[in-house]
Amino acid sequence: MNIFGNKEALIGSLELGVGAAFVLGALVFRKSIANDMLDRGFSVIGSSLLGIVAFLILSNVFDNLKLTIGLSVFVWLAGGFLLADLIQDGEGGN
After folding, report:
1. Could you state, in order of their start, the residue ranges of all structural domains in the chain?
2. Radius of gyration (Cα) for the chain, nearest Å?
3. Backbone conformation region of residue 39, classed left if phi is above 0, alpha if psi is from -120 to 50, else beta
4. Is the pLDDT of residue 94 over 90?
5. Are 55 and 69 in contact (CB under 8 A)?
6. How would residue 93 be classed by pLDDT, with cut points 50, 70 and 90?
7. Which of 3, 20, 42, 77 is deepest in the core (most CB within 10 A)?
8. Is 76's pLDDT higher than 90?
9. How much is the pLDDT for 31?
């Protein structure tokens, strides 16, 4: 039984936890690493959206949780760096 009451739902407690980790991780990663250390833009919206969607799709395709999370983190990073200029949300406040 998951948070929403269904046994077979699209978003269960694992998916919700991974999604929250992606969003909070994007906020911290953008300010502390991408903007300050690397001097690059990092899109919170792009990374969170692509990372969560990739995790949902890959978790239904593969049964291996490590592979699913690993590929989702790669998509999360790629989406954050590649969509920063397109979405224009790549800079964190000072």
Report:
1. 13-87
2. 14
3. left
4. no
5. yes
6. low
7. 42
8. yes
9. 87
The model's pLDDT over 40-58, given as tens digits with 9 standing for 90+, comes to 889 999 999 999 999 989 9
DSSP per-residue string spanning the chain? --TTS-SS-SS-HHHHHHHHHHHHHHHHHIIIIIITTS-----HHHHHHHHHHHHHHHHHH-S-HHHHHHHHHHHHHHHHHHSHHHHT------
Q: What is the mean pLDDT of residues 12-34?
A: 89
Residue 91 identity (one-letter amino acid): E
Supply the pLDDT for residue 35.
Answer: 81
75 vs 34, 54, 65, 72, 82, CA distance in Å?
16, 7, 15, 5, 10
| Cα(91)–Cα(18) distance, integer angstroms | 24
Q: Residues near 11 by Cβ (< 8 Å), separated by ≥ 6?
A: 2, 4, 19, 56
**Counting every residue, how long is the chain?**
94
